[in-house]
């Protein structure tokens, strides 16, 4: 059973990663690539994509750290609120 849960968690993690990768790719491509006259991206387009992906990844990491912190604080406050609500009912 734990093997199944591990497999599901791995698949969910992979799906989340691929979704993020596709989102970043689409966003930065549409923002940075403007002409299709050349076979390869221009230096300006390449630089734009580098900066765009770097910023997006940094933002995502910062967001996830804050989300995890918020969830931990919520877990810590949950037992206190349950105790207070339980005490008020009697």
From TrEMBL:
Annotated domain remarks: The twin CX3C motif contains 4 conserved Cys residues that form 2 disulfide bonds in the mitochondrial intermembrane space.
Superkingdom classification of source: Eukaryota
Topology versus the membrane: Peripheral membrane protein
Keyword Mitochondrion: yes
Keywords for the protein's UniProt record, in alphabetical order: Chaperone, Disulfide bond, Membrane, Metal-binding, Mitochondrion, Mitochondrion inner membrane, Protein transport, Translocation, Transport, Zinc
Function: Mitochondrial intermembrane chaperone that participates in the import and insertion of some multi-pass transmembrane proteins into the mitochondrial inner membrane. Also required for the transfer of beta-barrel precursors from the TOM complex to the sorting and assembly machinery (SAM complex) of the outer membrane. Acts as a chaperone-like protein that protects the hydrophobic precursors from aggregation and guide them through the mitochondrial intermembrane space.
Protein name in UniProt: Mitochondrial import inner membrane translocase subunit
Organism the protein comes from: Biomphalaria glabrata (Bloodfluke planorb)
Family: Belongs to the small Tim family.
Pfam families for the chain: zf-Tim10_DDP
